[in-house]
Design brief:
Strand content: under 5%
Radius of gyration: 18 Å
Number of strands: 2
Length: about 170
């Protein structure tokens, strides 16, 4: 990755040059409108507090701008996992603050409170969406040079939306 010059900042990242989307019987190259739609479709559907929704939309906006700087997918994913953690803090603590603890502690507390199902004895942690979220979040938060492609970054975003909506389901009352 090279720091872009001022006249290049609004040019798509060259790593998008070969990404295609279906069209009719074939495919065409992805545009910013396609990318915007793909990110826009991964919205929250539950009743999360405004602070959590703002944090999640910060992740979506960061991923949107990854069209111009592919490396921003990592920043967007980290922010999405942060929004999930913030949702847990709000639900379990009544606010977004936490004196001490980790995402693991929050998830364990959420399992005890029945927000997430308990882990199945003997099952792989990869079969549990919440455990997968912890693994992905920790890999990104504790130093990693990997850049996920758009599809994988969007899957992480979808996973975080699911987690936040599980913590704060839609209030249909």
């Amino acid at each position: 990755m090279v720091y872009k010059s001022a006249d290049e900042i609004l040019k798509p990242d060259s790593r998008f040059d070969n990404l295609c989307v279906p069209e009719g019987e074939g495919y065409r190259f992805m545009t910013i409108a396609d990318h915007h739609q793909m990110i826009g479709e991964v919205a929250l559907a539950g009743s999360a507090p405004a602070e959590v929704q703002d944090a999640y939309d910060r992740a979506r906006n960061t991923m949107l701008y990854a069209f111009f700087d592919y490396d921003l997918f990592v920043v967007g994913e980290v922010q999405a996992f942060g929004a999930f953690e913030l949702a847990l803090k709000h639900r379990l603590n009544g606010h977004g603050l936490q004196q001490k603890g980790t995402l693991r502690n929050l998830v364990d507390r959420a399992r005890k409170a029945g927000i997430f199902p308990k882990l199945v004895a003997g099952a792989s942690i990869l079969d549990d969406q919440v455990e997968v979220m912890i693994l992905l979040r920790n890999a990104l938060a504790h130093g990693n040079s990997e850049i996920h492609p758009p599809g994988m970054a969007v899957q992480a975003l979808e996973l975080c939306a699911w987690g936040i909506d599980t913590v704060f389901p839609r209030d249909d009352a």
